Amino acid sequence: MLKKFHLSKNEIGTDEAGRGCLAGPVTAAAVVLPEKFKNSLLNDSKKLSEIKRFTLKPIIEDLALCYAVTHIEPLIIDDINILNASILAMQKSVLKLDTAAKHIIVDGNRFKPMENYTYDCIIKGDSKYMSIAAASILAKTYRDEVMNLLHEEFPMYNWKQNKGYPTKEHRAAIRKYGITKYHRKSFKQLPEQLELKI
């Protein structure tokens, strides 16, 4: 059962999606839920089917006090590294919110201080706190929509299915076609990349 964070009435939950992908943005969302928000379906996005995530997306958008989503593109990921890009995406999402809430709960164990905000990092927070779970669902669904659009431009990588993750199919396509402008050049695209010029 997901809990409400007990230290603040209106905490800001934030989470990211796409950190381990070879292509596409890393996406983060920040969400403030009403104090008495309840939904029996709501859980960590990784534990939900795609249908359930997209069912929850408009419910969260409609009932949240406020929410925001940020995409950080591959060029920036390559420039500042994926951890910093993930934190930047979460911070930018927080700053977009129209809320008086000043306490952030972050999924995971890494974040960076923000002026005028306090924060707590919570391991597996997306399976413990509703606002983080809601943020995980928005981050995942918004990123999936981006990857579906990029799939239309480069269908040979099947991003509509693998969403840019390092599946065997995705890596086979990289071997055959090389990388695109949406691939993260700082990532090890192939296991044998040290011997390949891609």
TrEMBL record:
Cofactor binding description: Manganese or magnesium. Binds 1 divalent metal ion per monomer in the absence of substrate. May bind a second metal ion after substrate binding.
Keyword Nucleus: no
Enzyme Commission designation: 3.1.26.4
One GO CC term on file: ribonuclease H2 complex
Sequence positions that bind a divalent metal cation: D15, E16, D107
NCBIfam families: PRK00015.1-3 (NF000595)
Entries under PANTHER family matching the protein: RIBONUCLEASE H2 SUBUNIT A, RIBONUCLEASE HII
Family statement drawn from the similarity comment of this UniProt entry: Belongs to the RNase HII family.
Protein name: Ribonuclease HII
Gene field: rnhB
